[in-house]
Amino acid sequence: MEVRNCINFLLSSSQNAVFKYFSKRLSEYGITPSQYGVLNCLWEYGDISPSKIREILKLEASSVSGILDRMQKNELIERHIDQNNQRAIVVSQTKKSMAIKNDVEVIVSEMNKKFLEPFSDEEIKIIKKVLLTISDME
Amino acid sequence: MEVRNCINFLLSSSQNAVFKYFSKRLSEYGITPSQYGVLNCLWEYGDISPSKIREILKLEASSVSGILDRMQKNELIERHIDQNNQRAIVVSQTKKSMAIKNDVEVIVSEMNKKFLEPFSDEEIKIIKKVLLTISDME
């Protein structure tokens, strides 16, 4: 079987191309693609629990915890006690992460445009459906 | 923008799901998904140069070199001087890698079937075209 028919190869090599571009563009703002994922949760939903971030980004608890540690150290997020539940933690953004929101969102739009430009609206609809379905499979 | 519309998120999360399954299945045979990529090149093309492997798998030279080092240590490949060009190296398979070929190819078929089963032939054709096109973009 040719490797180009292997779903793992197809996803790895396309992901490599996109990740390389995205990492490079985000590096100007001192953040990584995973950190963008967290910031996007905060920008979409406001203050949010680590478990909700994990659910949205489909990540393991240990991965989210490591990403949040690095972001807190870099002053991109803060962790607080949830006022509604003293045993729970909420994550919130900082002045530093608020300040980069517009620029980072422009990068994401440019990335989507660049990599999806060759395809029709119908093809883009299919690719989004297929990738979301696969990402929920185990 | 919802993160599910970000092409990097869509590819990362679907790739995570597939990679996790594939790594686990291959671990029974002591190989990784990247090492499968190299074995697939050998099984498709016979003896092959490291630069040809790099081209087929769309990897950096340093990545291929590291993968080959580990595979050689684990007796899955051998490196020889190319008989047609004494300055060049060719990679070939070993008894150990020949012995796992059939079982590994069954795993790859099962993985493709599992993750692509929910989709129509037309959708699969589109997803393959889209992912191959993206993987060639920079």
Q: What value does the Rg of chain A take, in angstroms?
A: 17 Å
What's the CATH topology name of chain A? Answer: Arc Repressor Mutant, subunit A
**Would you tell me the structural class of the helices and strands of chain A?**
mainly alpha
The end-to-end distance of chain A, rounded to whole angstroms, is 24 Å
Please report the two chains with the greatest interface, counting residues with C-beta closer than 8 angstroms to the partner's C-beta. A-B, 55 and 55 residues
Briefly, what CATH class of chain A? Answer: Mainly Alpha
Number of strands of chain A: 2
> Which outline of chain A best applies?
globular
Assess the beta-strand content of chain A as a share of residues: 5-15%
N-to-C SSE string of chain A, H for helix and E for strand: HHHHEEHH
**Helical fraction of chain A:** 55-70%
- Please identify which CATH superfamily of chain A we are dealing with: Winged helix-like DNA-binding domain superfamily/Winged helix DNA-binding domain
Low-confidence stretches of chain A: none
Summarize the structure in words.
- 2 copies of one chain form a homodimer.
- Chain A has one domain: Arc Repressor Mutant, subunit A (Orthogonal Bundle), CATH 1.10.10.10.
- In chain A, α1 (7-27) packs across α5 and α3 packs across α4 (61-73).
- The longest helix of chain A has 22 residues, at 95-116.
- The first copy, chain A, is 67% helix and 11% strand.
- A two-stranded antiparallel sheet of chain A has the order 1-2.
- Chain A has 138 residues and is mostly helical.
- The first copy, chain A, contains 6 helices and 2 strands, in the order ααααββαα.
- The mean pLDDT of chain A is 95.
- The first copy, chain A, has helices at residues 7-27, 33-45, 50-57, 61-73, 95-116, 121-135, and strands at 77-82, 85-93.
